[in-house]
Amino acid sequence: MSYRLIRPLLFALDAERAHHLSIAALRMMPTPAPAPHDPMLASMVAGIAFPNPVGLAAGYDKEGRVAHKMYGLGFGFAELGTLTPLAQPGNPHPRLFRLVEDRAVINRFGFNNGGQGAAADRIARYRRPTGQGPVIGINIGANKDATDRVADYVTGVRCMAPLADYLTVNISSPNTPGLRALQDRAALDQLLGAVMAARGHDATPIFLKVAPDLEPADVDDIAAACLDHRIDALIVSNTTIGRPALRSAHARETGGLSGAPLHDLSLARLKDFRRLLGTRLPLIGVGGIANADQAYARIRAGASLVQLYSALVYEGPYLARRINAGLKVLMTRDGVANIADLVGVDA
């Protein structure tokens, strides 16, 4: 059935209830075989073999229930979470809003999840040895009431690293008060030093996810800290607390804005980091990507990989498959043999 036919039914439901229904539907879907190798789209990033560059961003599969099934929808990798050491309910309802006129979403979930221990048991049941199954990243955060947030991230590294192809340190959600202060240079040095020490000799790559709402000095400090602490990749970016011109009645809701209005801001931050970092650190572009042309532009601007989530609300579950097909058309047009050859050509 075409997604255009069922979308009005889903949109008639509360946004969070529709989200849970989609998770339930995916849980009933058979686990797909590993994605076939495509020499045009496959690449190595941070020592990981990605079958294609289009990933599912964190926030959709918060509990690690369906990340291993995303190959079946065309994704080359999936990032689950955010997971915190202890279970927490998140913020009060309602906390998820569709801004249909703007093709956007506002959320203020607040890291609602059942805790890393429960998720670890679940993920361990479906994880295959690294390299033999879906590429899965695990996004970790701190509990809202944590007295020592750095310690929470250290706990996350120790608990989740054995189950992940990569870990993402999420310090950029606007829905946990004070969390974004960890992007300040002194706090970031303390955090990344502790996280990398906790990883120890474990080979699990560590990615850092940052906000789009950064001043030039912030970008400089974050880039320097990533290099100093040898972070494996930088994800640019999370949701924005800014409010560009929006038409929806939900425009004034508090929380992080994602979707189409985030596109230009996220692309600008990606270009900022590419200008500072060059090829020394892989970048992952996130924010407002809804078609192959936008993914292509993000890769040309310096992203080795891209992620999406909000666009699925408006474009349907097989968007990743369509973007990958479109990328191949664009690459063929431009005479590009492999997606890695495209990274940063416009930088």
Please provide a brief summary of the model.
Helix content is 35%, strand content 17%.
Structural overview:
By secondary structure, the chain is of the alpha/beta class. It contains ten helices and 13 strands. It has an eight-stranded parallel β-barrel, surrounded by four helices. The protein is globular. It starts with a helix and ends in a 13-residue tail after the last helix. 49% of the residues are buried. The model has no long low-confidence stretch (mean pLDDT 94).
Write the topology of this structure.
Elements: H1 3-11, H2 15-28, E1 43-45, E2 48-50, E3 54-56, E4 77-83, E5 96-99, E6 104-107, H3 116-126, E7 135-140, H4 149-160, E8 166-170, H5 185-199, E9 206-210, H6 216-228, E10 233-236, E11 256-259, H7 263-277, E12 283-286, H8 292-300, E13 303-308, H9 310-315, H10 319-334
Parallel strand pairs: 3-4, 3-13, 4-7, 7-8, 8-9, 9-10, 10-12, 12-13
Antiparallel strand pairs: 1-2, 5-6, 6-11
Keywords, please?
eight-stranded parallel β-barrel; TIM Barrel; alpha/beta; 347 residues; three-stranded antiparallel β-sheet; globular; 13 strands
> What CATH architecture label applies?
Alpha-Beta Barrel
Low-pLDDT segments, ≥5 res = none
CATH superfamily membership: Aldolase class I
By DSSP (H or I, 4+ residues per run), the number of helices equals: 10
Give the CATH class.
Alpha Beta
Distance from N terminus to C terminus (CA atoms, Å) equals 41 Å
Radius of gyration: 19 Å
Please estimate the helix content: 25-40%
Overall mean pLDDT? 94
Number of strands: 13
Task: Report the biggest beta sheet as strand number plus sense, adding barrel if it closes.
Answer: 8 strands, parallel, barrel
